[in-house]
Amino acid sequence: MANDDRRKLLDNALAQIEREYGKGSIMRFGEFNAAQGVETISSGSISLDLALGIGGFPKGRIIEIFGPESSGKTTLALHIMAEAQKAGGVAAMIDAEHAMDPKYAKAIGVNLDELLISQPDTGEQALDICETLEARLMSQAMRKLTAAISKSRTCVVFINQIREKIGVMFGSPETTPGGRALKFYCSVRVDVRRISSIKEGADNTGNRVRARVVKNKLAPPFREAEFDLMFGHGISYEGDLVDLGVEHKVVEKSGAWFSYNGERMGQGRENAKLFLRDHPEVAREIHDRIVAIVNPPEPARDAPAELSAAAAEEPAENGKGRAKAKS
Question: What single DSSP character describes residue 125?
């Protein structure tokens, strides 16, 4: 009886909290976990999706992409928006720098007709806000944002630059503006760096980019991914397939030739990329095989103890029947 009374009191308390703060404001973790799941949005790069450990950027969380100028931060964010739209979601961009290039966004795959964009004019007074006040405001804003983001299953991506701290004698002087609040509230932080140029003859056609997951609350951090970022086109999906295919022995490389299932894809990496662009069904097959190798399906769980005990007793009871079947 005491347990029943305690449960009734608890249920009444939960009902009162839900009446005051809305349905779902408090629930048992079993219900919460079943409803939650980890939904993701692809980054547009297979190698980065795999490095993130959950197949993309998580919904309902805050993400930070940071790095030096011209490293590919905005391109990566545009790819995330394009992938969200492809999955039936809504994408919005707050462009504080007024640097949005609609032609480039369209080339990457962003549906401009459905994209929501805001280009706020902060005014000269923003220059007078000191670093400490900005950090405090950011901390207050993060506390309010986090709850709304989690409930609405929205993936919020902050693009941040790198600055250098003055007077640092040891360690890296690099830091990101916004104080510690953004670092604290982020579930995933990705450091994006340009590592080399991609050339076609004497012309630069793109950059080779390295993305390092420096913080990850949903999978092991410090994984890295490298991919091609082609000027005017964005992340090269086919380049990712070629690199990962060779790494996981799905695609064979002999000298300068690339082949798949005995069929030659082309001489040189660029020709192999062109082959995959012209044969999307082959690209999809390679993609599925890579994902199956990197993220194999989970093995079946062991049967509960009572089932195992019942199975152990079964031969004793049905011994005669089994002996007949064998004979």
Answer: G
